[in-house]
Amino acid sequence: VTPRAARIHGLTNDTLTDCPLWEAVAADVRAMLEGAWICAHHAHTDYRVLSQHLPDWKPAGVLDTLLDCR
After folding, report:
1. pTM of the complete model
2. Nearest Cα to 44, choosing from 57, 31, 63?
3. CA-CA-CA-CA torsion for 21, 1, 49, 59, nearest 10 degrees?
4. What is the pLDDT of residue 68?
5. DSSP secondary structure code for residue 66 in this structure
6. To bridge 37 with a disulfide, which of 8, 9, 14, 61 should be the other Cys (CB 3.0-4.6 Å)?
7. Residue 39 Cα distances to 4, 11, 12, 20, 67, angstroms
8. What is the dihedral of CA 9, 42, 66, 6, to 10 degrees?
9. How confident is the model at residue 67 (pLDDT cuts 50, 70, 90)?
10. What is the tens place of the pLDDT at every residue in 31-59?
11. Helix 43-53 and helix 22-33: axis angle, to 10°?
């Protein structure tokens, strides 16, 4: 976990030590996201991360609250 990510999310390598690896949970996450929308402030960031880890998944739609604020 990068220092920047740790500051943003509060997760560090130490706090994640006993958590399962991505490969162990990816299929479950993919199943949970089936048909889901991304609703987030600055949603392209979330979309980019999800696309990197689940390249075959596409959201049903994207709602970016940052765009609604402008």
Report:
1. 0.76
2. 63
3. 50
4. 79
5. H
6. 61
7. 22, 22, 25, 26, 11
8. 20
9. confident
10. 999 999 999 999 999 999 999 999 999 99
11. 120
Nearest-angstrom CA–CA distance, 11 and 33: 22
Length of the chain: 70
Contact 11, 38 (CB under 8 A): no
Domain boundaries, the chain: 21-69
Q: Mind spelling out the 3-state secondary structure of 4-65?
A: HHHHHHCCCCCCCCCCCCHHHHHHHHHHHHCCCCEEECCHHHHHHHHHHHCCCCCCCCEEEH
Residue type, 34: E
Dihedral sign from CA coordinates of 38, 41, 44, 46: negative
